[in-house]
Amino acid sequence: MTILNFYHIPSEIPKNVCDEIIKQYDNELDYEPGIVGDRKLDHKKRKSKVVWVYSDSWISGMLSHFINCANENHFNLELSRWYEKIQFTVYNAKHDHYNWHIDVSQDDLKNNFVRKLSIVMCLSSKDDYEGGEFEIYYPHGLKETKKLDYGDVVVFPSIIPHKVRPIKSGKRYSLVGWYGGPPFK
Fold this sequence. Notes:
This protein is an alpha+beta fold. The chain is 18% helix and 37% strand.
């Protein structure tokens, strides 16, 4: 078994729960543009909008359950808590995307706390958007692409390059979070 892949969880979260999360957080007044690693806006790298969900909300509890199941069943990493708030993300304009990136940064080492597992939960029906596929790139050169449907959850090591392909039409809503722990030894 290798830890360098993603773990898919068929969450069976009903569409009405996904719709309720969207309804709660889809407020144009609260959105901020998605930024990249060094905290700057770079539309070549990323174009999306985000709203932050507190890590003590019921949503983070649901996502924690999925992280812990994936870790127990597959990754077996030393984890302790969320890295920061959960990100509610919308890709809603033609060409919104997030190019290849990893979720670990130099700031992780300074804080003596490292992002170890990343989670993405799709809130949109796969029929509500065109494009916007999740893609992951494994160290041995294989790429895997997945069109996510509402309730789909993927968990993967934060050091693995991944991206969201450009949206062609519609809206793609998702929750994204990072669970971490002490630095690797």
